[in-house]
Design a protein that fits this description.
The protein has three helices and five strands.
Length: about 90
C-alpha cells in the first residue's frame, strides 16, 4: 500500500498559464475515462474553473484518491485523474 501511495507523485503534470498561480486559491475536479483513457466521461474545463483570471496553474495528477478508486473502476475499464487549478 505504501508503494502504491508513493507512486502518485510520479504522474503529475503542471501547466502555467500567464504568470502561473499568484494566490492561494485552488479548485479541484475529477476527470473520468472509459476504456483505460480512450473515452472521456466528463469534461473538466480548467479555463472555466479559473474564472476570468489570466494567470493560473493547471495541475493534473494521478493522486491518492485515484489510486483508492482504481480497484472499483478497473472492472468497468475506467480510470480517473485529479485536475487542480491553482489561482
Amino acid at each position: 500500500m505504501a508503494a502504491a501511495l508513493s507512486t502518485g507523485g510520479c504522474a503529475t503534470h503542471h501547466h502555467s498559464i500567464g504568470l502561473g498561480a499568484t494566490g492561494t486559491g485552488a479548485q479541484v475536479e475529477r476527470q473520468f475515462y472509459l476504456l483505460f483513457g480512450f473515452i472521456a466521461v466528463n469534461e473538466v474545463d480548467a479555463q472555466r474553473m479559473a474564472g476570468d483570471l489570466t494567470s493560473y496553474t493547471i495541475e493534473t495528477r494521478y493522486g491518492v484518491l485515484d489510486i483508492l478508486l482504481a480497484p472499483f473502476l478497473l472492472p468497468l475499464t475506467a480510470t480517473s485523474r485529479t485536475v487542480i487549478v491553482r489561482t
